[in-house]
Amino acid sequence: MKEDAYWIRDQVQKHNKWFEESLPMIASENLMSPLAKEMMISDFHDRYAEGLPGKRYYNGNIYVDKVELKCIELAQRIFKCQFADVRPISGTVANMAALMALTKPGETITCTSLDHGAHISTAKFGAVGFRGVNTVTYPFDTNDMVIDVDGAAKLIREVKPKVAQFGLSVFLFPAPLKELNDVFNEVGCTVWYDGAHVLGLIAGGRFQDPLHEGAHVLTASTHKTFPGPNHGIVLGHNLNEELSKKLSSAVFPGVTSSHHLHAMAALAVTMAEWEIYGEKYAAQVCKNAKALGQALYELGVEVLCSHKGFTESHTIAVNVAEHGGGSEAANLMERANMIANKNMIPGDKSAMNPSGIRLGSQELTRVGMKESEMKEVAALIHRVVVKKESPEVVKKDVMALKRNFTKVRYCLNEGEEAYAYHKLV
């Protein structure tokens, strides 16, 4: 019905207004630039381009091919890698492609467990289970929120996995790739790194460089610390021709058909903008995460890994068990226009009733907030989660803070120099 269509539009507009007046801190989300967003409503949205540039199954891809080749070129340059496939339509689809290329059903991979921060792709009910792959999880140092290096080395030697997999959804500190590199070589396993959460920090030189520290394959989504569209990517370095072909074939025809050309174009724009603004943005994201952790800690909130500076990424993990738990905290924050998510922390058994919340600094940074604003954000969280002030009262102060931060930064709408550059290209 016509009324339904307008009702749907109204709901989306209400959502837009709500988030414009909110402080979004979901660690897996971000904002695209206006120029990248323009690509999402272009004619690319309505077209197919199965196959590789110059080798399509459909005609009509003259300009699509040019954009995709530029996207690949930019990815290779930004990540200093030899192989880039920009066709996966999400991070999980990129993970499925990696599993298809690197494993066979019944084979074993080593990875991190969910309660230690892993992504559901490595769970039996996720992509790993769909592929029929067995998993053995690394010992984990819950105090330092990192993989136990000695324990992992022993495990890899005993299990001799086909693939050693690394990557987390609560990715506070780098994975021990350098420390385990000799072990990888000893057992002859392929090393796969899921960098979805930290892709922008990797690209900005602020986290670790997995493809040059021992990983063969890097998969990721492109809309977290890398502020692009909901899309995916597979990267590799020093791969032999056989593995490169396997990865490419796993992406298509393995796990994708059309690869969402509008999102691929938006990713290309984001990468072009990244070469100008990315390092500065990534640095501020990390500064803001540490500042948010420090401010909450000073207010008496238990932020994990205070002895290590809380985090080396965009994410902090907060134990709110004594304040009602993660579900209650996230719900109270939502009512106050602060958007976060409940999250398991070490020792939790239930994903629906965990002790923690996860906070990310990347979107607040994207709209221009810095360390001083993180102190204000921490105070607002403390008021509603710890002091149990009325969320409706706190919401007014949230909205007041956000009024000064509604424009996307670190992109080509920023300043006269960027505007001139936009006109030139």
Descriptive account of the structure:
The strands form five sheets. The protein has a seven-stranded mixed sheet with strand order 4-12-11-10-9-5-6, sandwiched between helices. Helix content is 45%, strand content 13%. The protein has a domain at 34-271: 3-Layer(aba) Sandwich (Aspartate Aminotransferase, domain 2). It has helices at 2-20, 34-40, 62-78, 91-102, 127-131, 149-159, 177-187, 199-203, 241-255, 261-298, 325-335, 362-366, 371-385, 391-402, 415-424, and strands at residues 23-24, 51-52, 55-56, 83-85, 108-111, 134-137, 140-141, 146-147, 163-166, 190-194, 217-221, 232-236, 302-303, 315-319, 338-339, 341-343, 356-360. The protein has 15 helices and 17 strands. The chain is globular, with a radius of gyration of 22 Å. The longest helix has 38 residues, at 261-298. Mean pLDDT is 95; it is low at 416-425. Helix 3 (62-78) packs parallel to helix 10 and helix 10 packs across helix 13 (371-385). It starts with a helix and ends with a helix. By secondary structure, the chain is an alpha/beta fold.
